[in-house]
Design brief:
This protein is of the alpha+beta class. It has a domain at 15-104: HIT family, subunit A, CATH 3.30.428.10. The protein has one helix spanning 51-72, and strands spanning 14-17, 21-25, 35-39, 76-80, 96-101. The radius of gyration is 15 Å and the shape is globular.
């Protein structure tokens, strides 16, 4: 898919990769160190991935976690994915969000991803992020 921005990533943007997957920092991070992990093959969503691709993605997620621990020393992580426009997917190339979390980055983190965190960097067209 030549029009897919994830399929056209520059080599310099890649944080880590393996045979079937690659990881890179989100251009509009929710928090410091926010990384996306994607299959190299263009898939609209992760339900289309083969078992080998899923294993590859998960192994790379583990490597990303270790890299983020070294660089940023987060206190926790949120992992998530948006599948379909109704779920908030805006880039239709399957991807997993790895979002480092830090003690005190929100007043009350209970509920994790059930609560919307103010974006670290505003998403285009969204002003200052979710409210």
């Amino acid at each position: 898919m030549s029009q897919c921005i994830f399929c056209r990533l520059e080599k310099t943007e890649i944080l880590l990769e393996n045979e079937l997957s690659k990881a890179f920092f989100d251009r509009y991070p929710v928090n410091v160190g926010h990384v996306l992990v994607i299959p190299k093959r263009h898939l609209t969503n992760l339900f289309e991935a083969s078992l080998e691709e899923m294993i590859s993605l998960w192994k790379l997620c583990e490597e990303v976690k270790e890299e983020l621990n070294k660089r940023f020393q987060p206190d926790g992580f949120n992992l998530g994915m948006n599948i379909g426009a109704a779920a908030g997917q805006t880039i239709f190339h399957a991807h997993v969000h790895i979002i480092p979390r830090y003690q005190g980055d929100v007043k009350d983190p209970r509920g994790g991803i059930r609560k919307i965190k103010q974006s670290h960097v505003p998403y285009p067209g969204e002003g200052e992020g979710p409210t």
